[in-house]
Input
Amino acid sequence: MNYSQRVEALTYLGDILGQINETNRVLYDAQVQNAWFTIPNQLQAIEHWSNLLKAEKINIWLGQYPISNEQIDKTVAIIMAGNIPLVGLHDLVCAFACGFNLMIKPSSDDTVLIEWIVESLYQKYPETLNLIQVVKDKKLVGFDSVIATGSNNSFRYFEYYFRGKPSLLRKNRNSIAVLSGNESDQDLDLLSDDVLSYFGLGCRNVSKVFIPEGYDIKKLIQKLEKYNNYIHHHKFANNYTYHKAIFLLNMNEHLDAGFLIIKQDEKNTAPIGVLFYDFYRELSDVNAFLNEQHEAVQCIVSKLAIAGAIPFGSSQQPGLEVYADGIDTISFLCNQD
Output
């Protein structure tokens, strides 16, 4: 497939994603496979990708790179995460757009949606049968480079296993919010989405909030309560109940919103069902922390003058040009051409 045909195929994918609604069987199959993939969460991810995969947006994004017009006779292996719906799709889109053959190993938590997307491409564009291969239970062999996303433990395994191959490897990260204390109700409402959309499972979900000394954290808690229905989701409720019990047994001071634990903590990685916060006196103290922890932070949500900060409500709405861990995937792929 040449460049124009690849863009056409990706645009088609955006079109069919836009046609999915809550009655589609694939959503129920994905939810059965992974209880975290509720129908609303899947539809949120699908709507986001449907909006991204437009020909104009794709061409503007790729126009800044030396993308090959012809198909490249090299194979990229893609090992996907599965913490939120379609989290691995960006790597698929990048490699396909660049003209590589793809060997995809989806997460066991997100095979239904990924396989449905690949099958949809097969049906419309039969030539992709020779370009995209989904590998679930077999060992990855015969690839030229690799993109792999996983935990900190799997990262060490990836480093060893893929030594000698060009590789783009990712590990655990979390996101941070920094408040000035002057945020509007709308700002805090949007921040609640940054914290709790997708149950807070994504690396772009805010897991810790910095607040100025004297700030009443209950202002934020009131906005977080729009997600209080999470207590009826058994997996989220189990996490909330477990950590609540641990904090009570250890006599750790915390606030209980009835569905979410809010705890002051120096760490920036909060478990599911928990949000960490900490006070700051000077913004320079926060910047020092962020500089020290930059390899563990995926994104920063704030209206303050912080390098790279993004607006409230946008953490789970990244554009095509936003790359996980700040590593430009397209540049990596272009260097393999």
The chain has two domains: 3-172, 174-302. DSSP finds twelve helices and eleven strands in the chain. The first strand starts at residue 75 and ends at 79.
